[in-house]
Structures are given as C-alpha cells and as structure tokens.
Amino acid sequence: MAFLRDLRVLYLRELRSALRERSIVVNGILIPIFLYPFLLWAMFTAMTFVEGQAEGFVSRVVVPDAGPLPALVTALESRSDVRLDDADVAPDSLDARLARGDLDAVVRFESDAGGLLADNPTVRIAYDRAESRSRRAAERIEAVVDSLRARRLMAEATGLGLDTVGLRVFALDTENVATNREAGRLILALMVPLFLTLMVALGCFIPAVDTTAGERERSTWETLWTTGVSRGSVVLAKYLLVATMGVVAGMLNVLAISVALGCIIAPLAGDRAADLALGLPLQAVPVMLAVSVLLALLFAALMMVLAAFARTFKEGQAMVTPAYYLALAPLLLSGSPDRGLTPALSLVPVANVTLGLKDAILGRGDTGLLLTAFAVNAALVVVCLALARSLVVREEVVTGAFEGSFWSWLRSRRRTSPSTPNP
Amino acid sequence: MPPALAAHPMTPSPMDPSRASAPAAPLESDAPLTVEVRGLTKSFLEEGRGEVRAVDGIDFTCRAGEVFGLLGANGAGKTTTLRMLSTVLRPTAGTARVLGHDAETDGEAVRRSLGFHSASTALYPRLTAGETLDFFARVNRLDPSKVKPRVDALIERFGIGEYADARVEKLSSGMKQKVAIARTLAHDPPVLIFDEPTVGLDVLNAIALLEVVEELRAEGRTVIYSSHIMSEAERLCDRIAVLHRGRILAMGTLDELRDATGLHYLQDIFVHYVKAAEA
Questions:
Q1: Nearest-CA neighbor of B219 among B173, B123, B153, B144?
Q2: What is the pLDDT of residue B6?
C-alpha cells in the first residue's frame, strides 16, 4: 500500500510538472491534435491546387513537320488548351527549349515502312516528365492521337464493309467489389498504424529527456534521491509518466486524424471521397489501445535509458534522437498495403504490432500471430526496463559521473567499480 | 566527562585499517544520539588518477539539539560525507546510522528521518511553493491528515503566504531560499543536513538562514552544517570537525579547539591543523 501511495504522489508530481512544460504540451498534445490533420489538409489542398493549375495551362506544342499526319495538327489547333508554336528552328534547338521549359511537348513522326496501312506513321511525343505542365501536354496530345486512331479505324472498317456498331473488340467493364467501408478501411489501415507509432514515439521523446537529463540539469535529481521513498518507485513513476504521455499523444493523434478525414478531407475531396466510409472497425479499437500502450512502454524505456547518460536537456535530446529514428525504422516493413503479419514479421519489434493493427483494421489477421507480436514487444519492454532501472539507480547517474558519455558507462561496467547501485 | 577534542593522527597511511575503527569523539551532552558515523570511507575510480579516497575512515556522532559543523576547504570530502549519510552515495567502507537506521540497509527510513538541503538539491521550478511543500511532506510519508496543517504552518513560519501559489521558477533567490528550507522541514525531520547552504546568498538571506538553523537547534533537532565559511561555523556550531583530504583532523567545541591549539580565531585554528597535516 505504501509503495502504491508513494508511486501515486510521485506520478502526480511528474504529471503536473510535465503538463506545465511548454515543449511537452506542444509535442505531446498540440502536435498530435493539429499537425497531421493540418498536413493532410495542406497536402490535399496543394494537390487540388496543382491539379487545377495544370488543367488551366495552355500547352505549348511544336510539330516540326506536320506532313505525315496533317489531321493531328488540325485537331490540335482546334483545341483551346493547346497552342502550336513556331517550328521554324533546328531540331536540336527544340530539345533545348523543351529542357529549359520554354516548350511543353514536341511531336515528331516516324514512317511505318512495314505496316499494312498507308499513311500510318508512329507519333513520337517528346516531353519533360519532371514538369507537370509538360506531362499534361503529352496527355492532351495522346488524347488527340487516340481520337484520330479511333476515327481512322472506323473509316477503315467502313471501307471494308464492316458494321461499325458491332466493331467493339475486348469491351472493358470494371466492377469494384470492395464495399465503401472496405475502401475506407484500407486508407485507415495505411495511415493509423504509421501515425500512431510516430506520435507515440514523439509523445515519449521530450518527457523521457525531461525526467532524466532535465532533472539532472535542474539539480532536482538529488532532491528526489534524498526523499523517503524507494528508488524503484521514483524510477517507476517517471517511467509511467513518459509512457502515459506517449499513449496520450498516440490516441489524440488517431482521434484527430479520424476527425480530419471526416470533417476536412471528405468535403474537400467531394465526389472522390463520396464512396468511402472512414470509420475504425470496433474490433480494431482494443488492438489499437494495446498497441499504443505497448509501443509507449517500449519507447519510454528505450529513451529513458539513453537520456539517463546525459547531463543536460540538450545532450539528452542528442542521445535520444538516433533511437527515435531507429525505433521508427521497422515501420518501413509495414508500409506496403498488401503486407500483413507473418510468422517471421511477428518477431520484428514495432513492425509486428503495427502490422497487427493494420490487419485488425482490415478485419483480417491471425490472433496467434498478434499475441506473438505482443509477447515479443512485452519481452523487449522488460529487458529495457531492467536495464533502465539498473542504470538509473546507480549513484553515477545521480552525480553525473558518466559525464554524459555512454562509453564512460561501459568502461565503468568493465572495471571493478567501488560505486555500486544504491537501492 | 572526558575532553571532547579528538586529535586524529596527522599522517596515517590511507590504507591503515586502524583508521576505520578509531573511536568517535565523546559528547558532553546527555541528549539522545541521533547520528552515528563509524569508519566511513568512500572511494571513486577516476580516469587517469585511479582510485581516489574522497572520504577516508571518518567517525563522528551527533545528538539531538546540536549543531555539528563539518569545516573544510573545497574538495575536503564534506559533500561526499553528507551524501553517504543521506544515502545518495553508498559507502565503500564503514557505517552511518541515523536514529538507529543503517544508511546502507535501511535507506528509506534514514531518508525519512532527514531533511537535506544543499546547492545541489534544487526545487522543482514548475511547482508552486505550496505544491512543493505538499509534495515533499507526502513523499516523505508524513501522515496525510497532518500534511495540510504542516504546510500551512511552514507557509506561516517562513512568510511565504504571498507567493505560495506562484511557481518556484518565478520567485526571487531569497524567496526560493525560504521555500527550499521549508521543503527540507516539510516532513518534520529530527535530523537536518545543510551542505554549504549560504553559497550564492546575499548577506541578508544568509543571516536569515543562520537564524533558522539556530531556531532548529532550539527545537531540539540535530543539524549537521557543512561550510568553509569560518564565521558561520563560529556562530552556529556546538561542535566542529575539521575535515581535510577526507579525514577529520580535529573535532570538538570551539573552546576545546582553542585550548588545544592556543589560537583564538577559528580561521587560524583551521589553518593550523591543515598545515600540520600537509607538513
């Protein structure tokens, strides 16, 4: 009972201090709520804007020699979104203008010597794929060529006495068997595990540094160390605080993304989002909670171990940053839409639980594999926590004798040190 | 009662085992013994220097209602001694007991009996003064029903009511000093450790702190007061231990030290012992 009461007092003190620290509130609460919804909105708006801009461009096209297919030139001239520029220059010069962006496309013809049909050249379009307006020009020319090709085929068929109405060959009709809900879940399955992991790690980051290196920098480590509670309860309270901030950041972010998708993106997307149903399936919610808690426990332990060596907050940030990126690296494995949790991947920390969450959102997956993934991460948490405790309670950590160096700590482990853990 | 002055050998070998069992100075008072230090030793491994003995087999005892001074230059071992006493550091050898609790085996009980105040025990900047006192009372397991009356009493005693709801980071140095002393007393500890408490304080705040220490003695608490400022030790300490290179060179009341050296001022007495040890 006394231990739990101590833990509560210590935890509430840590929480109160954390919620009064601007950087923790910004990273753990404000960014998760506003950053990604804002980014999503900004990206979508920018894409729409660029798309609109590209639609409004008048494509500058040059056809140096219209001889083989004059109908193409006529058709291009009839379009209001295409302007045919002067071709009265050397071919090399046209390529240079295209590269500079003075032109959007150049159309040339190559004769088809072996073909069955007369006047049937190959149309070669030169454009700059790196430029959106150049890509748009190529698409417009291709559309004109397709139209001419269809007309020519109709004319040839009519010449051969064929009924053009019955000339449809390989008619194509597609049917999307995915329900609106499934399509929406695919989007969520790609976004939620990624953002949840990112935000949990970000939520843990500053508190992990603040409760260790920050505490030493403020000279409050020793104050706490001289209080009448066990070292274990001090470390556990800090650890729980860091993990709490991670879970809060992750959950707030998922909530914010859900709201953003429904309230911001869907209206912006209009018809394109009309057939999507963006809602998390109920059975994925407990999995998401479990995943966020596990990730928070893992990141908190890992980051606290590293930050414990630092003497200042800045040093702590420098030490934890590589671990932050390292912890997120397994996310690369879960990026593909088709990849699910496999027996091999269930052994890869972080990636395994994010894949498990993805499967849960998609309504598929294997409970056994998911439990294996949880067990792997839980085991890693225990290892990190044992390491964190053995490290943080050492008197060198309190006195800063490691001088902010991981290697100093390793050296102190190798030699027989008279300084021992102080329970 | 025999004379309280314990003259320690000046040049013993650092490895001399007899040093660890040297008897502590007897006390004149019949007040209960609160602190007992025997053969306390602390070694550190330092790169390039090997094993360094920061504290080398010291012995002393303290009684209730006594201000015991640890007088020494920077690096003499004062802070290391007090850190061992408050269980921040574990002794390499020897024992330290507070109210009968062993610092090594019963650390939590020792810490609950102590209030530790030093330049390296800062306050939480994001808590208010009132929250600080409440936290330290609770975390040191003061009976929950007594926490609020105790906090109110400390706020009244140190005159911090005006800024009890202000965050510590917003307070002036003098205000912080008052809060820091109040938080040391939050759980009503019978033993207090002040490690160079006036470092960085202006004259008025330093004098105010010395007055608080005198009040604490009058309340019957034990105060272990470490300093390198002779005038403070002269004014406050009932007994003084001269600490140099981790060893106690001399220990006794000021009058006993004067009698032993034939010198009047504590500064001269201190220099006398240090020079003799270095010779």
A1: B153
A2: 42
Taking alpha carbons only, the member of A331, A352, A334 closest to residue A343 is A352
Sign of CA dihedral B160, B163, B168, B174: negative
Residue of A367, A177, A194, A184 lying closest to A281 (CA atoms): A184
pLDDT averaged over 10-residue windows placed end to end, chain B, 279 residues: 38 33 46 94 81 93 96 93 93 95 94 89 91 96 95 93 94 90 95 91 88 94 94 94 96 95 94 92
* Angle, alpha carbons A112-A118-A119 (nearest 5°): 70
Cross-chain CB nearest to B108 (options A13, A228, A398): A228
Burial class (CB in 10 A: 0-12, 13-18, 19+), B3: middle
Do the Cβ atoms of A418 and B51 come within 8 Å? yes
Candidate from A96-110, A159-173, A221-235, A338-352 with smallest mean pLDDT: A159-173
Q: φ and ψ at A286, to 5 degrees?
A: -65, -35
Q: Identify which of A226, A229, A421 has the shortest CB distance to residue B121.
A: A226
Supply A240's token pair.
């729980």
Q: Does B178 touch chain A (CB under 8 A)?
A: no
Query: A25, A217, A226: best mutation site toward chain B, by most B Cβ within 10 Å?
Result: A226
* pLDDT tens-digit series, residues A63-122: 888 777 888 888 988 988 899 887 666 666 888 888 888 889 999 888 766 666 777 788
Give CA–CA dist A27/A204, Å, rounded: 9
b (16+ CB within 10 A) / e for A43-57: ebeeeeeeeeebeeb
Specify the 3-state DSSP secondary structure of B267: helix
Of A5, A13, A222, the CB nearest to B121: A222
pLDDT in tens, B162-201: 999 999 999 988 889 899 999 999 999 999 999 999 887 8
Q: Nearest residue of A to residue B133 by CA position?
A: A13
Contact residues on chain B for A219, CB-CB shorter than 8 A: 119-122
Q: Which domains does chain A have, with CATH numbers?
A: 2-44+181-414 (no CATH), 54-166 (3.40.190)
Q: Give dist(CA B66, CA B29) in Å, integer.
A: 9
User: What local confidence, expressed as pLDDT, does residue A208 receive?
Assistant: 93
Task: Please tell me whether residue A294 adopts helix, strand or coil conformation.
Answer: helix
Asked if B135 and A418 come within 8 Å (Cβ–Cβ), the reply is no
The verdict on ipTM greater than 0.90 is: no
A337, two tokens? 């839409």
CA distance B194 to B229: 13
Counting Cβ atoms within 10 Å, is residue B43 exposed (0-12), middle (13-18) or buried (19+)?
buried
Query: Are B111 and A10 in contact (CB < 8 Å)?
Result: no
Q: Which residue of B has its CA nearest to A401?
A: B46
